[in-house]
Amino acid sequence: MDISVLIPLFNEEESLPELCSWIKKVMLENNYSYEVLLLDDGSKDNSWSVIENLSLENKSVKGVKFRRNYGKSAALNIGFQRAIGNVVITMDADLQDSPDEIPALYDKIIKDNYDLVSGWKQKRYDPISKTLPTKLFNWAARKASGIYLHDFNCGLKSYKNTVVKSIEVHGEMHRYIPVLAKWAGFANITEQVVEHQSRKYGETKFGLERFVNGFLDLMTITFVTRFGKKPMHLFGVVGTIMFIIGFILFGSIVGSKLYALLNSISAKNIAEMSSFYIALTSMIIGVQLFLAGFVSELISRNSNDRNNYHIEKEI
């Protein structure tokens, strides 16, 4: 099969018939074999009934329904597990992503041999209250990940099938799939300028809190990708530096006190010096960080995926 189209959705009953009809038109025009996986993330409206009817009309349309709303990452993870197309394309269900972009995204994978192609909505039909935080978020993601994409959060992306089978998306990590892919060894990543449609039905399902969550997730993914297998390299180094700084400061305080006593010079009691408590606190924090790294190493070495390496080829 050429293409698997994955569409996470939540309360999108109005847009689904038009979206599936549009996708079918594009597939037939380009003679692609395809499947459409509609991933219903616990919708409260009639989305599932619409999906059932669409599946009866077109056998290429399939559906998965969650018992409750788990989030976009969970929907995509299930879709990645079930996708059988050589190229996997994800898009949103609100008609803001155009199916007309599918051939270009497909060619980028098949002809240009990219692992992952991320859409870039260069011209957006969103208010500044949404576009400005998005630009700040994308800037931070580029700096932290080393992947220079303009629009990490664009739902319109294409992947080699081997990429989606090698990553696991959870929490709200769908924003950082390119980072997960790079961590799994798929570094041939690029972007494609795509058209951004204005919303035709319903209303956005995301609020401003997604930007706060996005930055927290960025910190998490940065730590996990860099130190997930070797936490002592972070906690141990920082803890050791903190302890050494505190020990040197403490040694200088004790040394100056001994010098004053030996030379009958008046000096403050050590317990009255603020620098003494700074040194003591620094050493305590250093020891705690070192122990945190040690415990993290024990947990990491006993985890089920401690040797989960991605093999590309074997003879």
Identify the notable features of this structure and list them briefly.
7-stranded mixed sheet; 315 residues; elongated; 12% strand; Spore Coat Polysaccharide Biosynthesis Protein SpsA, Chain A
Explain this structure:
The protein has 315 residues and is α/β, with parallel strands linked by helices. It folds into two domains: 3-227, Spore Coat Polysaccharide Biosynthesis Protein SpsA, Chain A (Alpha-Beta Complex); 232-301. It is 49% helix and 12% strand. It contains ten helices and seven strands. Strands 3-2-1-4-6-5-7 form a seven-stranded mixed beta sheet, sandwiched between helices. α5 (128-145) packs parallel to α8 (209-227) and α9 (232-262) runs antiparallel to α10 (274-301). The chain is elongated and about 95 Å long. The protein starts with a strand and ends in a 14-residue tail after the last helix. The model has no long low-confidence stretch (mean pLDDT 84).
CATH domain topology of the largest domain: Spore Coat Polysaccharide Biosynthesis Protein SpsA, Chain A
CATH architecture of the largest domain: Alpha-Beta Complex
Strand order, main sheet: write it out.
3-2-1-4-6-5-7
**Mean pLDDT across every amino acid position:** 84
Give the % helix.
40-55%
Largest sheet: 7 strands, mixed
Summing up helix and strand content along with how strands pair, one would put the structural category as: alpha/beta
Identify the CATH homologous superfamily of the largest domain.
Spore Coat Polysaccharide Biosynthesis Protein SpsA, Chain A
How far apart are the termini? 26 Å
User: What is the count of DSSP helices, taking H or I runs of 4+ residues?
Assistant: 10
Number of structurally distinct domains: 2
Q: What order do the helices and strands follow?
A: EHEHEHEHEHEHHEHHH
The share of residues in extended strands comes to 5-15%
Shape field: elongated
